[in-house]
Amino acid sequence: MDSPNAFVMSNLPVLPVQHLEVIPTKGGTAVFLVTERKTTVIQVDASVGEALLAALAGKVADRPQSHDLMLHLLLGLDAVVGHVVILEVKDGVFFARIVLSQEGPVARKVAEIDARPSDALVLAVKAKRPVFLSRQVIEACEDMTETLARLRKQA
């Protein structure tokens, strides 16, 4: 990763996701993660896809949804989402980490929480925090840039 936008986070080479696009499909939702190098797609269930679409559109539900509850709990604990990393993919299953931080009067605490990428993405979008893809994910996944371009034309 010799790009100026690539960097190492906790000894893990990552690339920032420049933007994501959510496209409903017959079996759920396709989430396209666009980096400067390639576009990766993650399939999520329809309900999380709807939550992600709403978060991207800035819609606020009348009552707190599950992801809102998570953010409210973090706020109550004086913790914030720092960023999300889609860490690895094994047998078509993606794994993510939500990096949280908490500023105290004496010290700063940082925690990495294992999460489904779908939930992590919704939290990152709602909290307006960055998303990163690890080199392992970028190298393991097919480039879906052309597929995304075709889907955009069909819409």
The count of domains is 1
**Please, what is the average pLDDT?**
89
Q: Kindly report the spatial arrangement of strands forming the biggest sheet.
A: 1-2-9-6-7-8
Q: Identify the overall geometry.
A: globular
Helical percentage: 25-40%
CATH architecture: Roll
Low-confidence stretches: 1-8
Task: Find the CATH topology.
Answer: Bifunctional nuclease domain
Radius of gyration: 16 Å
Explain the overall architecture.
The chain has 155 residues and is α+β, with helices and mostly antiparallel strands. It has one domain (7-154): Bifunctional nuclease domain (Roll), CATH 3.10.690.10. Helices cover 32% and strands 41% of the residues. The chain has five helices and nine strands. It has helices at residues 46-57, 66-76, 117-127, 135-140, 145-154, and strands spanning 7-9, 12-16, 19-25, 28-34, 39-44, 79-90, 93-103, 108-115, 131-134. The strands form two sheets. The protein has a six-stranded mixed beta sheet with strand order 1-2-9-6-7-8. It has a three-stranded antiparallel beta sheet with strand order 3-4-5, with helices on both faces. Strand 1 (7-9) and strand 2 form a beta hairpin. Helix 2 packs across helix 3. The protein starts with 6 loop residues before the first strand and ends with a helix.
